[in-house]
Each structure stands twice: as C-alpha cells, then as structure tokens.
Design brief:
Helix content is about 35%, strand content about 25%. The protein is α+β, with helices and mostly antiparallel strands. The chain is globular. The longest helix has 19 residues.
C-alpha cells in the first residue's frame, strides 16, 4: 500500500520562499507510485491551508500556494484524512527558519505522537540558535572561530560597548548574523566600524539576538550526515563563491557560486571532517539529517562553522548533491529519510510513561 505523506511548507519566516522551492523539488522527486502526497501550505501569516492530493509533479511554486483552500488547525494532522481513511503515515516538515526548523513544529508533532522526518525538538531548536549551538560545540571540544553575541536591548542601551567588545573579540574582518535564521538572510561581512554598525542594525531586523564571528581565510567545505543513532557521512563538497561570501542570492537566485563535489581534500582532512561532523551530530542529539559546514585552512585546520538541521532541497542545494555523489540519488534519499523517521518513531513508542 502507498504511504500517506504530508508535506508541511511555506511558514511564517523570512525563509518562506526557500521552503516553497524545497517543497517543489521534493514533490518532483517523490515516487507517486509509492506515496500519496498531501500538501499543507502555511501562509506568511501562519495560517494552515490543506491542499488537494497531488498526483504528479508541479511546474511552479504558485501551484503550491493554497490561499483559498481548506483552513485547518495544526492538531488536525492527527485526524483521519477523510471519512473511512486513516491518517498520515509520516509528516515531512519542509520548513526553514523560525516557526518551522526551530523545534516549534517538531514539539507539536511530538505532542500529537506522529512520525516526522528530521530532527527532534532539542536538535532543531539548538541548531537554529547559532549561539546555543556554538556553546554546545565548545562543550564537545569542537574547534571553532572566535565569536560573541548580543541581544537587541543591550545594543540599544550600550552600542559603543557592543562594538568595542566585538572588535576586541573577533577583530576585522568579521561576520554579523541573526542568531536564529538560516539561508544567509541578514548576514553582513564587516571590515571596519562603519560596516559593523550597519551590520548590527541589519541583523537586528531579523532577530532579537545576533552573533558576530571572526573571519578566517579558509575553504568552505560541507558534508551531509544521514542516520539516527549510527549516522553516516557523505563525500565532502566545496563551495567557491564568486562574491565575498555565500549569500542568499548566490544560494537561491542567481546560482553565482561553484559547487565542487567531491572536494579536492586529503584523506586525513576528510577523516577530520567526518569525525567532527558526527561529533556535532551527536552533541545536538540529531536524527535524520544535517548538513555540517566547515572551514579548512591552508595548514589543514578543520573548523566547524555550523550544522543545518533542515538543509534545502532545491535543485542547486548542496545536501542532495552530496548524497547523489555518494551513491544515493534524490528519490532514494527521500525514501531513506522517511524510513529513518519511522524507525525513530517506533523506537520512541518503547518508552514507558507510567510506573
């Protein structure tokens, strides 16, 4: 029998459009002979709209925006799909950024006791907050660049102190980022005080907390990690941006970057990368998938930058390309993620909640 898979996408997030692109790509990759695909579109205002059963790929993301469809409450996910028809076998959250990738939706799915693809509440929330993530990585002994963080109220009251502390801790160049956002939204590279002041203002548009990281001269290398208790790593890939850094436009709009897969690295460096990626995966108690992002310096120092607990699945995204070059093509990757979701859910059912 076909598995009933529910796709959640869109969302009340600055990464709404990225999520739509991800959903379109996943729908194109899913085997419609194996899965009944039930879309649920979350509007920018946070409304949940149930779309019709999809019987084939869609041509563009506009077809996935069901503003006039059936509005539902989130807890309706646990109800039968229709009279006499059972509920969803698995939920696939294709949500990026806050209100989707940060543990909020995952918490709801846990309360509803539904199988879902990807990371759980803790890993999702810690992976979304770059400051918490880096603190946990430090506890695990992973090598990182110097960093400092601030909340908006502190910056508003003591801007000069914030700028001075940043310069003392990270120096220039440095990168200013919203703490709880991905896809390079709100990120600025700074080489002087004027740029730093503008970058703080920009980043605080997107979050109440920001992080500033030391800039390093290094190659950007990424790995895909797949699994639950026994995660495995893909081949390594390298990002070579034609711009100063791999920003939102380069990622999702103009493709103004080169992805080199596999990356030209030594076996020793690959060994360091895989060991660090798995250590990071376990430090956050991840499950299903992550993309682990690293810097590799000329002297082969391996520095973890971050992990992304819901990497994009657009045609130009690194994560599916890494696994394709490792021997797992896109449709197989989707099926593996569903399998891992069901495996983890089955294990959770063994937990006793009564004495």
């Amino acid at each position: 029998m076909k598995k009933k898979i529910c796709l959640l996408y869109g969302g009340k997030s600055a990464e709404h459009q990225v999520s739509l692109q991800t959903a379109k790509a996943v729908i194109q990759a899913l085997d419609h002979e194996k899965f009944d695909i039930h879309p649920i579109f979350i509007t920018k205002e946070g409304n949940w709209v149930k779309g019709p059963l999809l019987t084939g790929p869609v041509e563009n993301v506009k077809q996935l925006e069901f503003h006039e469809g059936q509005h539902i409450a989130p807890n309706a996910l646990s109800a039968p799909i229709s009279d006499g028809e059972k509920g969803y076998d698995v939920i696939f959250p294709l949500l990026h950024g806050p209100n989707g990738e940060d543990g909020t939706v995952q918490g709801m799915l846990e309360l509803l006791n539904l199988p879902y693809v990807g990371n759980g509440v803790l890993a999702s929330s810690a992976g979304m907050d770059k400051v918490i993530m880096k603190n946990l990585f430090a506890q695990a002994g992973l090598d990182q660049v110097k960093y400092v963080s601030f909340i908006r109220s502190t910056w508003e009251k003591q801007p000069e102190e914030c700028f001075r502390e940043t310069e003392e801790m990270t120096g220039y160049p440095c990168f200013v980022k919203p703490a709880n956002l991905g896809s390079s939204v709100g990120i600025s590279k700074c080489t002087n005080r004027a740029e730093l002041e503008a970058a703080f203002k920009e980043a605080f548009h997107f979050d109440r907390k920001i992080i500033v990281e030391e800039g390093v001269t290094a190659r950007e290398i990424e790995l895909g990690v797949l699994g639950n208790d026994d995660p495995k790593c893909s081949v390594a890939g390298e990002i070579v941006a034609k711009k100063d850094f791999y920003d939102y436009k380069a990622k999702y709009e103009d493709g103004d970057t080169a992805l080199i897969i596999p990356a030209e690295i030594s076996e020793a460096v690959y060994g360091k990368l895989t060991a660090s990626a798995i250590k990071a995966f376990k430090a956050l108690d991840c499950s299903g998938l992550v993309r682990a992002d690293f810097f590799v310096t000329k002297d082969e120092r391996v520095i973890i930058n971050e992990v992304n607990t819901m990497p994009g699945f657009t045609p130009v995204s690194m994560f599916p390309l890494l696994w394709k070059h490792t021997g797992l093509d896109y449709p197989q990757l989707i099926e593996k993620l569903v399998e891992l979701a069901l495996e983890r859910h089955a294990e959770k059912q063994q937990i006793k909640y009564t004495l």
